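Intended use. Records like the one below are meant for learning the mapping from a protein sequence to its folded structure. Do not use them to infer anything beyond what is encoded.
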Amino acid sequence: MLLKSIFARPRPSNIYLVKVSGYSFPSGHAMTSAAFYGFIIYLIWQTNIRKNLKIASTVFLFILIILIGVSRVYLGVHYTSDIAAGFLVSIAYLIVFTKLTSIYLKGDDKKMYPKLQNNNHKSLISSFRCAFNGIKISFESGRNIIVHYIIALIVILLGIFLKISSKEWVICVMLFGLVISAEMINTAVETIVDLITQDINPLAKRAKDISAGAVLVLAIAAAVVGLIIFIPKIYNLIF
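Structure written out for the chain above:
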């Protein structure tokens, strides 16, 4: 918004496919998509998943970013230079942000955790390092969380295309966070159970099943809410 106010460039004067207000330069959609999906690409390459899966995910997200930018030109609400500027701003942001993030992700866990155990008042930097490390581990430990992220990306695309309201965006973002967090907690529960016992134990199975069931209940609830939001809009678009 600050950059738009500084440059104050009017939007294209050609026929609009959608009605929008505000200035044109740089494109907010281009900036947001490049920053968000670009950071997901960065996180993917910090994991230990197969290289071909990393490449496929990167190509998919890169194409998604480009399509979002192209769609803004196609709709007639931005010039090509607006899109290019939005991408450049996000690239600069990602360079700085990922550099700071890499500081948190780096370090020897064997050296880090004993220090944290001896200090009840760990620093804010150490807390963020542990949090980012947890996100990284969650990517490496299972396919389910990657599926949740892919579903979130699809919902975001639908939300942009169908132009859902601000309140509906808030609901969707909250559900993204709840489902992904629940999956991470489920992974943590499974890790703790495996740490306690490697033997076949009915109680261990019960703990894992209940934890997985909690994720499923939340995912189903999120899907129902998503259908309530999107089905009427899709119906109105078709009919």
